[in-house]
Amino acid sequence: MGLFQEKKDYLNCLKSSGHQSEKCRLFSKKYLECRMEKNLMAKQEMSELGFEKISEMDASGEKPNEKINN
């Protein structure tokens, strides 16, 4: 995917979530990784950008053990 698509996905997520950025962390991470790959920003460890726990969350921003089971 190109940078434009990554940015679009992130912005669409923000819009659909009522601008709750924590629900769009996966899209934010992908967007920043794409920017680094294209040398549009300095390469950094994702943990330095606040993504050390992103693997514990799904795309909705909820931790798996916090989901409500009906």
TrEMBL record:
Pfam families: CHCH. It comes from the Eukaryota. Residues 5-37 form the CHCH domain. Keywords: Disulfide bond. The keyword Disulfide bond applies. This is CYTOCHROME C OXIDASE 19-1. It comes from Salix koriyanagi. The lineage of its organism: Eukaryota, Viridiplantae, Streptophyta, Embryophyta, Tracheophyta.
